[in-house]
Amino acid sequence: MSDTKTKETKETQKSVCPDTCSCVKCDFTKNLDAVKKYVDKEWDLPCEEGELADFVAEQRSDYGYERGLMVEGGPLRKIWKAFMDEWPELFEMEDEIEFLRGLESEVCG
Question: Is 106 helix (H, G, I), strand (E, B) or coil?
């Protein structure tokens, strides 16, 4: 894609995605920003029922199974991974999931 085309696409995206936008990427970004604020304040992930807890649960599950927004190589997966790397103590379970998936593929594979 040419630089001109890329610039036009970014400008179009800005005009299409105002603060009230509800596209998948904007929703993900807004929710992740809210989760980051929660974690900065509480030093924990939101776990009580609600929009943020549901968002975190969905991203963790999708990340582990490489589905939805968390497909391998996807841009939102990279953003989520960076967040997990920033707070590794909150995401110890992901390492366990990867380990168990490896065992499962050896046994069932």
Answer: helix
Handedness of CA 3, 23, 51, 41 (dihedral sign): positive
14 CA to centre of own chain: 21
Tokens of 95: 């390492």
Q: Which tens digit of pLDDT belongs to each residue from 52-105?
A: 999 999 998 899 889 988 999 999 999 999 999 999 888 876 555 565 666 556
- Contact between 55 and 83 (Cβ < 8 Å): no
The vertex-66 CA angle with 39 and 12, nearest 5°, equals 75
* Contacts of residue 18, Cβ cutoff 8 Å, sequence gap at least 6: none
Which of 46, 17, 39 minimizes the C-alpha distance to 83? Answer: 39
